[in-house]
Design goal:
Radius of gyration of chain A: 27 Å
Strand content of chain A: 35-45%
Number of strands of chain A: 25
Number of helices of chain A: 9
Distance between the termini of chain B: 59 Å
InterPro entries (chain A): Adaptor_comp_med_subunit, AP2_Mu_C_sf, AP2_Mu_N, AP_mu_sigma_su, Clathrin_mu, Clathrin_mu_CS, Longin-like_dom_sf, MHD
Family (chain A): Belongs to the adaptor complexes medium subunit family.
Membrane topology (chain A): Peripheral membrane protein
Radius of gyration of chain B: 35 Å
Organism (chain A): Oncorhynchus mykiss
Helix content of chain A: 10-25%
Strand order of the largest sheet of chain A: 13-15-11-10-25-23-18-21-20
CATH superfamily of the largest domain in chain A: Mu homology domain, subdomain B
Number of domains of chain A: 3
Shape of chain B: globular
Strand content of chain B: 5-15%
Oligomer: heterodimer
CATH architecture of the largest domain in chain A: Sandwich
Helix content of chain B: 40-55%
Largest sheet of chain B: 5 strands, antiparallel
Shape of chain A: globular
Structural class of chain A: alpha+beta
Number of strands of chain B: 13
Keywords (chain A): Cell membrane, Coated pit, Endocytosis, Lipid-binding, Membrane, Protein transport, Transport
Strand order of the largest sheet of chain B: 1-2-3-6-5
Distance between the termini of chain A: 48 Å
Chain lengths: 438, 872
């Protein structure tokens, strides 16, 4: 199991060190600093073995978090734990920075004592941790017996992510469907790979212990319902057209997985506040919001002509925002002249790229940029690698075509019903890695 | 030295100040002081001098202060064991606190203090906490048992904590169950045969129920534990798989990977024609692909595991090639792994896409990645015949870029392509020759020389080219020297007239001026071959070479099976068995995939189509020279060895007369990477001897032998180290006699005379078990006084007595054997025509065995009644 956890600043100074196992000595702290943090070359692996001791690390801004062990631990678990640890810390004191860590080191030690025992991860839900570990010190000495046992039963219980007795005057639900659309396109406009990775993020402010049921236009569910004898002709035809094929999805631990496996229904008791309900992936029938058409021409040895056309491909009534096209330039660029019809374009020498920004763009439109790049003559034999043209944007729809069909809330003990809950749904599609080779 | 002094001075001042603050009356000031102490501790300053002052702060109502003091205690208690005892009272008191959080905190911290005196006091509170009414305390106590076991294993066993821990598996709270499972799994790892976890269908059912309810981490513990279970039959296997598959949709990648591990393992037992088998295969692909959208570090772990899965079951991901395409911004470790998997998945159906991608990668920045991409193109050519032509032209394009490392890498792979498809692409040789001067890496030079030698008849100036290399012969690496020698000999055989001088020159360079034995030997062989029989030389040197097959760097099947059992863990990331990187005995137990159910093995193999075909011969890596005649002789030795003849020859526990038994093969060479161990036991002059015969059936020399026994019924242990002083060369055998003592740790084995042995050498650790004849434990002073015998015989209760019939035995031979085996006759009398012999035996552990032998005249069958009594 996990033998110890260290947190370093960018210089390799130790900010936090907690050892759980006897086989980890103080020299482990130094070994990681010398061999990884101070190593000259780029990090070649997130797992390093130094003198029969294994180190796992992740970096958050310039902070290094490292787990050390001498045993054959579950590597996936270690990384999941490190991410979780970052989440927990972030939810307590915000950004993970040297200053924040130094100011909260007592709290971090307390957390480490609670969420790792002898190297075994324990409950790491911020919801329940915050009931007895706070930045003002530990609650506990002034609690009543009922409160104490409520804490312990929640920490160890089946529904560790939600405490009992939550009350809201207004029961509200916010549902965000956030998708990132990834594309790799060849210069000729052929789609090499495209997929959408989406997340359903919920913010729930509901009283009591509500039971929720979530439905979307998943092909399998709709087909199932269709076969199940739904005689509504109209419903059948429309749903058949709109349903989407989800390749795979994963759920927050509150979702009953066995139920999803048998009936494909998503039912759960939600955590309080914001959380990620599910993640999914689709690869079929993706709406690609933009198409990039590049044209690069080498004029002699010292000049390049670049022309890039972007086309928006969605309903004209919708507006895309924060559009940014990044056109890489060779390292030996000496000067660039840009002409664009819309937005602003600039050559950024430090990034070796021309950055073209457009604030808004409606659907079914087209825009173009052309640039002349002057090159310094070099005797470098190696050809310019021509990195792909990448693009960023945000659109108000889900490129996968996913639609929320319903979200039902049942709370039998309290007197509010599904109709009393105010629900908000929003779709945002963002670019993930959206690249066109040139 | 100076920096150490400096730090000391700083500390001395600080410590003085802190001491004052710690002893302050004000609570707030105290707390701040303890915080400062912890901060100094974190950065590695030695603040142990403050021990008494900090411990004094422990008795407080302030939980935060208490936690800080505990943190300090965990760090320094070991260095100040006497003072740590001051803390015990507070711990014991806290374990009785009405607040469950405090009870748990106390028991959690106490377990982390590795001081013997404290652990003594820990037992009682721990026992109570294991049965606490609050689940939070119970789950903490469960882990504490594992902590205590790490400090003092014997204590945990003596105190019966293991049984309590086993009971917790049936606890009503899922988190308690999960922690109990984690603790038991860890303890079980250090007792490979204790059967601690005692997994059976009932307990498995409990675990599967808890799986649905506990935290994500708990699910990982339970799944990892389930993976160690071997279902009884395919039906049980299927039902477990059905209940594990929902975990594949969990958001936590570690849960997903552990579930994949269980499924991959249990799938082995399912018949392949079962519908469910196909369904399961289909269900595995999407979650594996989803893992690739996780954070890069997890992607890396996932990719390393997918690499194993693809080798074991290529059908799962064969349609998912695209997801392994490299993204421009992927970290380099992700890129390299993806590339590896792409090659493994390459097939005729997707080769066009793969090639287009690889060509793209070959222009990237990272040198390692580019090299690997170029090499991958070559591997595609060898793997998919239809694509060979395209691959070769792609490689030629890349050579035209003149980027040095790209050219070199391309030449190395082109050589392999020539070997796979002889007489097909030789037209490109001219292009390759143009780049001769730019090659500076040994592997590329050797490859180029091989090409020149092999196709000497088509290259007009082959002699000039080779001669140019000859000038700096002594500065070349061995690899290049060997290749050059062979290439020139080939050239000579093809064009004998012009190259006589050249061949003389290289032979003398190799045989006279070199001190490398390989090179010299090869030189001499060529020389003699050429001088005795040039025709034979031609036949040998220019013989047709066997074709190379497609798969390179496949993981050896037994290792692959073991790694599949370790999916998700570090072993699967390193692609090494745990014994290669874990110290000590923990976790070095080798895991194996279960065999398919015995009812239908034929069906499975026939229907699956994936039954092992001829094992792919692997392209030798650099160092071995491709296809040269000398290497062909060195084909792997026949590792078959004598088949283990264990059946029917087992020494029975009751073979009291067992004498010179033939030696048995305890460890066949197939199981131990070429090391075969056979042996027997004997008692000589009061000393028990284990006679071992070690045979090295592998190619390499074995050294550093060591031996160890697991705990056994009579406390047998090696009395000295294994005396193998000289390295054991290939095909050598050595006989060793190992004296044994009987003072080692004791654990009852089944059968009683079973002995588990671990033998280590420079290659690995191997395990086997054998049985010893009980008679070797009979000691020389086993002769009992007559009076004592009489009294004892009466004392032995009837239920300690048992009777046996011995058949076909003759008194003369019997008495001789008995004498020799330290079985002493005390008295003899005749009753009603029957001879009654009374005998005594004393075992090495002080157990007396008294026996009465009834012999009827004329009847070869004797009756033995024996009773036992424990001395001391």
């Amino acid at each position: 199991m996990i033998g110890g956890l260290f947190i370093y600043n960018h210089k390799g100074e130790v900010l936090i060190s907690r050892v759980y196992r006897d086989d980890i000595g103080r020299n482990a702290v130094d070994a990681f600093r010398v061999n990884v943090i101070h190593a000259r070359q780029q990090v070649r692996s997130p797992v390093t073995n130094i003198a029969r001791t294994s180190f796992f690390h992740v970096k958050r801004s310039n902070i290094w978090l490292a787990v050390v062990t001498k045993q054959n631990v579950n590597a996936a678990m270690v990384f999941e734990f490190l991410y979780k640890m970052c989440d927990v810390m972030a939810s307590y004191f915000g950004k993970i920075s040297e200053e924040n860590i130094k100011n909260n080191f007592v709290l971090i030690y307390e957390l480490l004592d609670e969420i790792l025992d002898f190297g075994y991860p324990q409950n790491s839900e911020t919801g329940s941790l915050k009931t007895f570990i706070t930045q003002q010190g530990i609650k506990g000495q002034h609690q009543t017996k009922e409160e104490q046992s409520q804490i312990t039963s929640q920490v160890t219980g089946q529904i560790g992510w939600r405490r009992e007795g939550i009350k809201y005057r207004r029961n509200e639900l916010f549902l965000d469907v956030l998708e990132s659309v990834n594309l790799l396109m060849s210069p000729q406009g052929q789609v090499l790979s495209a997929h959408v990775s989406g997340r359903v993020v919920m913010k729930s402010y509901l009283s009591g212990m509500p039971e929720c049921k979530f439905g979307m236009n998943d092909k399998i569910i709709i087909d199932k319902a269709g076969k199940g004898g739904v005689t509504n002709e109209a419903g059948k035809s429309t749903s058949g057209k709109q349903s989407i094929a989800i390749d795979d999805c994963t759920f927050n631990q509150c979702v009953r997985l066995s139920k999803f496996d048998s009936e494909r229904s998503i039912s759960f008791i939600p955590p309080d506040g914001e959380y990620e309900l599910m993640r999914y992936r689709t690869t079929k029938d993706i709406i690609l919001p933009f198409r990039v058409i590049p044209l690069v021409r080498e004029v002699g040895r010292t000049k390049l002509e670049v022309k890039v056309v972007i086309k928006s491909n969605f309903k004209p009534s919708l507006l895309a925002q924060k559009i940014e096209v990044r056109i890489p330039t060779p390292l030996n660029t000496s000067g660039v002249q840009v002409i664009c019809m819309k937005g602003k374009a600039k050559y950024k020498a430090s990034e070796n790229a021309i950055v073209w920004k457009i604030k808004r763009m409606a659907g079914m439109k087209e825009s173009q940029i052309s640039a002349e790049i002057e090159l310094l003559p070099t005797n470098d034999k190696k050809k310019w690698a021509r990195p792909p043209i990448s693009m960023n944007f945000e659109v108000p729809f889900a490129p996968s075509g996913l639609k929320v069909r319903y979200l039902k809330v049942f709370e039998s003990k309290l007197n509010y019903s599904d109709h009393d809950v105010i629900k908000w749904v929003r779709y945002i599609g963002r670019s993930g890695i959206y690249e066109t080779r040139c | 030295m100076r920096s150490v002094m400096f730090r000391f001075h700083v500390c001395a001042g600080e410590i003085f100040e802190l001491k004052a603050e710690l002893n302050s009356d004000k609570k707030e000031k105290k707390k701040e002081a303890v915080k400062k102490v912890i901060a100094s501790m974190t950065v590695g300053k030695d603040v142990s001098a403050l021990f008494p002052d900090v411990v004094n702060c422990m008795q407080t109502d302030n939980l935060e202060l208490k936690k800080l003091v505990y943190l300090y205690l965990m760090n320094y208690a070991k260095s100040q064991p006497d003072m740590a005892i001051m803390a015990v009272n507070t711990f014991v008191k806290d374990c009785e606190d009405p607040n469950p959080l405090i009870r748990a905190l106390a028991v959690r911290t106490m377990g982390c203090i590795r001081v013997d005196k404290i652990t003594e006091y820990l037992c009682e509170p721990l026992r109570k906490c294991l049965k606490d009414e609050d689940p939070y305390v119970r789950k903490t106590a469960a882990v504490c048992v594992a902590k205590l076991h790490d400090i003092n294993a014997q204590l945990v066993e003596d105190q019966g904590f293991l049984d309590t821990l086993k009971d917790l598996i049936s606890d009503s709270n899922p988190m308690v169950v999960a922690n109990a499972v984690a603790a038991l799994s860890e303890i079980a790892e250090s007792h490979p045969n204790s059967n601690l976890l005692d997994l059976n269908p009932q307990s498995i059912n409990k675990l599967l129920t808890a799986l649905n309810e506990c935290t994500e981490w708990g699910q990982i513990f339970i799944l990892d534990c389930l993976a160690n279970y071997t279902p009884r039959d395919d039906r049980e296997s299927q039902s477990i798989c059905e209940r594990v598959t929902p975990r594949l949709s969990h958001a936590n990648s570690a849960v997903v990977l552990s579930a994949v591990k269980v499924l991959m393992k249990f799938m082995e037992m399912l018949p392949k024609d079962l519908d469910y088998y196909g369904t399961l295969l289909k269900k595995l692909a999407p979650p594996l692909v989803t893992l690739l959208s996780a954070e890069p570090e997890l992607q890396y772990v996932a990719l390393r595991n997918i690499n194993l899965i693809v080798q074991k079951r290529p059908e799962i991901l064969k349609h998912e090639m695209k997801v392994f395409f490299v993204k421009y911004n992927d970290p380099i470790y992700v890129k390299l792994e993806k590339l590896d998997i792409m090659i493994r998945l390459a097939s005729q159906a997707n080769i066009a896409q793969v090639l287009a991608e690889l060509k793209e990668y070959a222009t990237e920045v990272d040198v390692d990645f580019v090299r690997k991409a170029v090499r991958a193109i070559g591997r595609c050519a060898i793997k998919v015949e239809q694509s060979a032509e395209r691959c070769v032209s792609t490689l030629l394009d890349l050579i035209q870029t003149k980027v040095n490392y790209v050219v070199q890498e391309a030449i190395v792979v082109i050589k392999d392509i020539f070997r796979k498809y002889p007489n097909k692409y030789e037209s490109v040789i001219a292009t390759l020759c143009e780049n001769l001067d730019s090659l500076d890496e040994p592997e590329a030079r050797a490859a180029m020389i091989w090409i020149v030698g092999e196709y000497a008849e088509r290259i007009d100036n082959a002699d000039e080219l080779l001669e140019s290399f000859l000038e700096g012969f002594h500065d070349e690496s061995t690899q290049v020297q060997l290749q050059l020698l062979t290439a020139i000999v080939k050239l000579f055989l093809k064009k004998p007239t012009e190259t006589q001088e050249l061949v003389q020159q290289v032979l003398s360079l190799a045989t006279q001026d070199s001190d490398n034995p390989d090179l010299r030997d090869r030189g001499y062989i060529y020389w003699r071959l050429l001088s005795t029989d040039p025709v034979a030389a031609k036949e040998v040197v220019l013989a047709e070479k066997p074709l190379i097959s497609e798969e390179t760097d496949l993981i050896e099947p037994t290792l692959l099976e073991e790694l599949i059992c370790h999916i998700g863990t570090l072993a699967s990331v390193y692609h090494k068995p745990p014994s290669a990187f874990v110290e000590g005995s923990r976790g070095v137990m080798h895991k194996r995939l279960p065999a398919q159910g015995t009812e239908c093995p034929d069906v499975g193999n026939a229907a699956g189509g994936s039954a092992p075909e001829a094992a792919p011969s692997i392209i030798p890596s650099q160092g071995d020279l491709l296809g040269d005649l000398l290497n062909l002789d060195l084909a792997p030795p026949t590792t078959a060895g004598p088949t283990p003849s264990t059946s029917g020859m087992q020494m029975g526990g009751m073979d009291l007369l067992g004498g010179g038994l033939d030696s048995l093969v305890w460890l066949p060479a197939m199981k131990a990477k070429g090391l075969e161990i056979s042996g027997t036991f004997a008692r000589r002059a009061g000393v028990i001897q284990m006679e071992l015969v070690l045979t090295n059936k592998a190619m390499s020399v074995m050294t550093d032998f060591a031996i160890q026994f697991n705990r056994n019924s009579f406390g047998l242990a090696p009395a000295g180290p294994l005396q193998v002083l000289t390295p054991l060369g290939p095909n050598q055998t050595i006989e060793v006699s190992l004296p044994l003592s009987t003072v080692g740790p004791v654990m009852k084995m089944d059968p009683l005379n079973n002995l588990q042995v671990a033998v280590k050498n420079n290659i690995d650790v191997f395990y086997f078990s054998c049985q010893y004849p009980i008679s070797m434990l009979f000691v020389e002073d086993g002769k009992m006084e007559r009076q004592v015998f009489l009294a004892t015989w009466k004392d032995i209760p009837n239920d300690n007595e048992s009777q046996f019939q011995i058949q076909d035995c003759h008194l003369n031979s019997a008495s001789n054997k008995l004498q020799g085996s330290n079985i002493f006759t005390i008295a003899k009398r005749t009753v009603e025509g029957q001879d009654m012999l009374y005998m005594s035996i004393k075992l090495s552990n002080g157990i007396w065995v008294l026996a009465e032998l009834k012999v009827q005249a004329g009847n070869p069958n004797y009756t033995v009644s024996s009773g036992t009594r424990r001395d001391r």
